[in-house]
Amino acid sequence: MVLTLVTSQETSDRLQTTTFNLNSASAIYTAAPFIDFAMDPTETTHQRIITIAADDVLHIKTTTPGHTMGIVKGTSVVITEITSGVFASSTVTTAGSNNTTDEFNPFDTDGDGPAFAAAGLIANGVVFDETDASMKIPSSGKYLIMVNNLYAAGGSTNNTNTIRLYRSAGSYDITTADERLFSNAVKIHSTVDPTEHTICVIEDLNADDYLAITYDVGAGRVQAELGATFTVIKLQEGQPIAGTGRGLGGYGNIYASVMSDQDSTADDDDVNPFDEGTLTGDATFTTRAISGIVFSPAEGTFTVDKPGLYFIMHNPIFQVAGNVVVTTKILVNGVIVSASDTAFINNVIEDPMNLTNTAFVELQRNDVVTVFTGANTAVNIAHSAGSHITMFRYFGFFRTQEALASGLIGDDLTINTFSQGNLSVQYDRNIDQLPFKFGIRGAGTLRGRGTEPSVVKLGDKKV
Amino acid sequence: MANACFTYSEKASYAYVLCTTSSAVDAIAGTALPVFDSDHDDVVFTNNTSDDITYTAAAGTFTRKSRNLSCGFNAGDFSRNF
């Protein structure tokens, strides 16, 4: 489950504590980012994997002790089932106190590292090793990797925290540059920490690959804070839902994960950060993984090939020329489906800064997804290299079970032209019986018109 | 052949709630309150949930129900991961 929380702070600078609780039990997730009321609203992302039984009640709560706060447009929660049965999610339950200027693994529990209580750990298939804070991949496939990096300076650091994701084949190793999947550079400032930066990417991984996160501030110090969560989920890629017997395809086999390699130009008009025309230098993007979605850098569009329910997360990193309210928008066919329009960035203290925007929408074939960001005033904003978008089809066209046609002519010589067992099974469909029009060979009318079914449009003829 | 009941809300498990109008700036004070509570002053939420998850706007809670499908797929009384 993913909570994209945009909040305001009415008075006084304070921590805002957000918790997930099941029923009346103790919190299974707690995070407390700092919100400066002069720099609000602020977006923070909270996520972890939760096991939910029938009749369980999930509570998502927040508070700012001793003061008041508000919920801001763009706040959302997406709860989707993990259908592959292969996952791990590790949440920091006691903050670290690391003090190093070297690149290091902030989830490593050794020395001054953080702690993970049992309630903060859940896994099946993917193995989280606290000693080296890595995620070991059990089998090849596409994996969704999401990390909400809650971090703090633990001192008076004002610097840039470069957050990197590594993959190492067969052994844990975070020192090899060519094993670096990507990096994001975001601000760490002691007056507004703990703060949060989200990574969400889909990667093609092999069995026995190891994943690890590192922080690198160069000067000063940084540490993982309460609530920081490292989550790895294998996409189901069209197989039945593990352990349930449910599902005949449609989960997780369509996806796109794209990252910009260059900063964008600065503009005070709406900017599409995935339009190559907005990038400076070499207008290049890195496609981390893509299937069933066409990414057009020339247009900055993502066109889906199949209908379904889609999860979309946009993670821009902003640099601004002055204090400004940034609007982030996700659009489908030019219509806004999710807008978070009140995230304030202070260019001295906060940027480069990540603001996550999330949507969960039903898309049709050839629907076009775009993202835009804009400013509320004539202040230029730019996107840093490493800004990224990830989307995948959570649930697609749900077909009836595969079966062989029973044959046009039955044992009693009955001609079964329109029967379910003969005609319907020849089509991918989500109904029992096709319209009879599909069984008509040749023109359906003397005029040769009217053979185009007007209702059933999701399924395609099998080839 | 099994009866068909193929809609997204009947077949998948999901919940999505989006805030489309901000709450008052003092909607939540020193006591922890549900984020997605429609009782917050001024706030407006939209939602899209599957049949087996109930979003109770007045309480801001999400309840997972057991699913009793009649179309050949297993019911879901067991725990699942989200």
Question: Can you walk through the features of this model?
Answer:
The complex is a heterodimer of chains A (463) and B (82). Chain A is an all-beta fold. Chain A has two domains: 2-396, Sandwich (Jelly Rolls), CATH 2.60.120; 404-463, no CATH class. Chain A has strands at 2-9, 14-15, 17-22, 27-31, 34-35, 42-47, 51-52, 57-63, 69-71, 76-80, 87-91, 121-124, 127-129, 134-136, 141-152, 158-169, 180-189, 195-205, 209-216, 223-224, 229-234, 255-260, 285-291, 293-296, 301-304, 308-315, 317-320, 324-332, 335-345, 353-354, 357-363, 368-375, 381-383, 388-396. The radius of gyration of chain A is 25 Å and the shape is globular. Chain B has 82 residues and is mainly β. Chain B has a domain at 10-64. Chain B has one helix and six strands. Chain B has one helix at residues 8-11; strands at 14-21, 33-34, 44-49, 53-56, 61-64, 80-81. Chain B has a two-stranded antiparallel ribbon with strand order 1-3. In chain B, strand 4 (53-56) and strand 5 form a beta hairpin. The longest helix of chain B has 4 residues, at 8-11. Classes of the chains: A mainly beta (463), B mainly beta (82). Chains A and B meet through strand 1, strand 3, strand 7, strand 8 and strand 9 of A and strand 1, strand 2, strand 5 and strand 6 of B. Strand 8 of chain A pairs antiparallel with strand 5 (61-64) of chain B, so a sheet runs across the interface.
